[in-house]
Amino acid sequence: MSSWEGKPIAELIDQWGPPTRVTPDGRGGMVYIWEQYKRVGNGCIASRMFWVDSTGIIYKWAWKGL
Question: Which region holds residue 55: left if phi is over 0, alpha if psi is between -120 and 50, else beta?
């Protein structure tokens, strides 16, 4: 996922489809979040998050879950 840093969010959306949700990053940009429910035991949500600056460029990423 680090290969997305420095690239436009539009390219990621073109490949992955629309995010599950988008929220402000507190710095004038946005955080784009893709969530997927995984059936493991009682269930788990895997989240892939990308921080995007005001010009639409990805500057940080993180993931949680499986």
Answer: alpha
